Amino acid sequence: MALNELERVLFFDMQIQTDGSIGERHGWPDQWAELIKATQQSRTPIDVCVTLMDVRNFQQVFNSPSHVQKLQNEILGLLAQESVSGIHLDVEIYDAVAPETLEAFRNFVLNTALQVHALGDAKQISVFVPIGGVTALYDGPTLNPLDRVVLQGYDAHWKEGHTAGPVAPLDGPGVLTWTKLVAMGKAWGIPPQRLLVGFPLYGYEWRVKDNRLGSATLGPGTSTTFAPMAPALVPEFSVSVRERVLRYGASYDAKTASAYYQFRKPDGVRVQGWFDDWWTLLRKSEYLMQENIGGMAFFLLGYDDGQLLQQFFYQRSLRAR
After folding, report:
1. What would the 3-class secondary structure string for the chain be?
2. In the prediction, which pLDDT does 232 show?
3. In a domain, 231, yes or no
4. Which of 228, 237, 256, 272 could form a disulfide with 164 if both were Cys (CB 3.0 to 4.6 A apart)?
5. pLDDT in tens, 173-185
6. Containing domain of residue 95, as a range?
7. Domain tally for the chain?
């Protein structure tokens, strides 16, 4: 990866336990010496991402002041590592949350931001904001003290969804579009330069009822990566967009700035796949520049084998000349 082209790298992930401790760390930092060395050589800060995805775990952590304090201590311990430049909170709860639990969570975010900033400019804090949940985890006062706010720009259509469609639509009628996200971030009063939108380096394909765009799905979809991936590395990804497009071609939906392909399997079942490529990335980046938004957060680095981002960086360098 061209690390020098990236503002920051986020290490994903470390998982928050029910008592506020950080459990699974996926080998950080001992098994990631090469990554740490590479980011230091390119002078690219690396932040660690702590995650909490289960509503029951969320309730157990934030309904207990001692668990909250433990989590804050764990975060400060991570930030004490010389190789760590920041903390990224990825709390994705889409279920209903009791008001008192929500208040405790928001207070935790504010208090953690104060403690991180007390460490000096070299340490920063950012959050991922999930979209479409029953309870909105964040509001403007909670988000404004943070260094960066990453809006969920993907999964407008998802693996288990009932209809096929764009993963990260720029515009359109759906609840989750980039234009709606940007408007929401600005309405919160967050300076646009501190807003980022998540850009997927993956896609989905579904078995569908017919060849209409947005057709009903016939069951859960399949996750795809932009480029072929080694099965031993990511066995859950067996389909690459590049191989599908070489075989079946690609079409574009101008409204959503998204790409798709369609084909029929030997058994007669139709398949519809949606993804992002160079053209959609360029369209969406131009929109963000028009709105003076801080940038994009690519998820996950490597799913494109560097091909998509390298071309994007090259085109951007040509325009800057």
Report:
1. CCHHHCCCEEEEEEEECCCCCECCCCCCCHHHHHHHHHHHHCCCCEEEEEEECCHHHHHHHHCCHHHHHHHHHHHHHHHCCCCCCEEEEEECCCCCCCHHHHHHHHHHHHHHHHHHHCCCCCCEEEEEECCCCCCCCCCHHHHCCCCEEEECCCCCCCCCCCECCCCCCCCCCCCCCHHHHHHHHHHCCCCHHHEEEEEECEEEEEEECCCCCCCEECCCCEEEECCCCCCCCCCCCCEEHHHHHHHHCCEEECCCCEEEEEEECCCCCEEEEEECCHHHHHHHHHHHHHCCCCEEEEECCCCCCCHHHHHHHHHHHHHHC
2. 86
3. no
4. 272
5. 988 999 999 999 9
6. 3-200+278-320
7. 1
